[in-house]
Amino acid sequence: MVVFLGLSLLLARWLSLENVERSAVVVLLEDEARGDAKAMLAQLHGCDSHCRSTVIADARRLRRPGHVQILAYQSQSAYSLTTTVADTRVAWKSSLGRFPVVQCVKVERKGNAISGLQIRLLTLSVQIPDTADC
């Protein structure tokens, strides 16, 4: 019984990471939709000068009124058990009906399922074509 509870706890911890990652990405996109480059940069770890200029330009160009609605979300690191850096492709739009925006977020999952994993967002791409992969 103790082994079952321990495994259940580990499984729940591992599965909850998908929600942690998605929540972090949504907050980043909400900041982008508001045009708040400073808030976006605060969420991106290790963002170099090229990344910073992309974020500032995106915050201006992709500013949208309304709430962010996620249309599609594809995480390449979703079920990783160990440290991983991978892209997450996200399609979103404004609740006020503008056309969709598709972008890639580079996500780092650090640690392992036993000692714990943490999520860090590293970069956010410019808008990519609707059918493009990251």
What would you say about this model in short?
The chain has helices at residues 2-34, 37-43, 49-61, and strands at residues 68-75, 84-94, 101-112, 116-124. The protein is an alpha+beta fold and 134 residues long.
Spatial strand sequence of the major β-sheet: 1-2-3-4
Query: What's the story with the biggest beta sheet?
Result: 4 strands, antiparallel
What structural category characterises the helix and strand content? alpha+beta
Tally of contiguous helical segments:
3
Tell me roughly what share of residues is in helical segments: 25-40%
Cα end-to-end separation: 43 Å
Kindly describe this structure.
The protein has helices at residues 2-34, 37-43, 49-61; strands at residues 68-75, 84-94, 101-112, 116-124. It has 134 residues and is an alpha+beta fold. It has a 4-stranded antiparallel beta sheet with strand order 1-2-3-4. Strand 1 (68-75) and strand 2 form a beta hairpin. It is elongated. It starts with a helix and ends in a 10-residue tail after the last strand.
List keywords for this structure.
134 residues; alpha+beta; 4-stranded antiparallel sheet; 3 helices; 40% helix; 30% strand; elongated
Compile the SSE list and pairings:
Blueprint: H1 2-34, H2 37-43, H3 49-61, E1 68-75, E2 84-94, E3 101-112, E4 116-124
Antiparallel strand pairs: 1-2, 2-3, 3-4
Helix pairs in contact: 1-2, 1-3, 2-3
